Fold this sequence. Notes:
Elements: H1 2-32, H2 40-60, H3 64-75, H4 81-108, H5 117-152, H6 154-166, H7 168-171, H8 176-191, H9 193-212, H10 220-239
Helix pairs in contact: 1-2, 1-3, 1-10, 3-4, 4-5, 5-8, 5-9, 9-10
This protein binds 2-acetamido-2-deoxy-beta-D-glucopyranose.
2-acetamido-2-deoxy-beta-D-glucopyranose binds at residues 90, 94, 128, 131-132, 135, 205, 245.
Amino acid sequence: MMDAVVKFTSQSQGRDRVFRATQYACALSIYLLRNKPDRKDLVARLKSLENNMSAGRKLLRLGNAANSIVAAKQTMQLSDRLLSLCLTVANINRALYFICDNAVWARNVGLIRSIDKERWSINASRYYLFSLVMNLTRDLYVILQLMQKKGRDNRFKSRMNQHLSDCPEVAEAVIPELDALIFLLLETLRSEPTVALDTVKNICDLFIPLDRLGIYKSSAGVVGFCGLISSLIGILTLARPTLRIKP
Ligand SMILES: *[C@@H]1O[C@H](CO)[C@@H](O)[C@H](O)[C@H]1NC(C)=O
């Protein structure tokens, strides 16, 4: 049963990502058209499309809590303790997020009546935010490890010295160490696109719960734009599994 649920939800992942990209593309377009009174019709159609995408995704996501629990069981076995902790906590929070999200959906369609919709929806955003923070901690940890490795690499050291002497304005900079650090960071991200993509995706996703919870209010345009970028990265990593961060 569990296997079947997990299999089905991983198959529906592609559909979910396309729906999500469409949903945020609509949100962004609605924001960009907000001051155009002659486009009222189009905006109304986009709004209805956005709502349909959002509702369709809720249905596709019904099995995702089970999926996240299975993922948590797997990440618990990782030999790197910190990595294991970050990913397991992230997966458990993701499961809790889906449970709340499914409950809100069930309330909306009238399957259950007894829950406070607003509170469950806020809790969903909290778990989602916490899952993202744990994922970003993982990204940061992996980036620091890679930077350390690269910094010890002799071939890289000579390139770094080359870069520093090539840019005389850098030598006069207030903090040349900072420039060296940024160079090291950018070179690391360039040589590990999987980590770079995952980091960008998680940072983009962060704006959605931060806005929802009122911790950092950004505009509907920022939320739409970040959601669209993160969905496109999601589609890319699904289409090209070599670009997906592991584990
Ligand atoms: C956190 O990372 C895992 C593994 O990469 C991923 O499956 C999950 O969707 C991420 N969580 C969120 C909230 O994006």
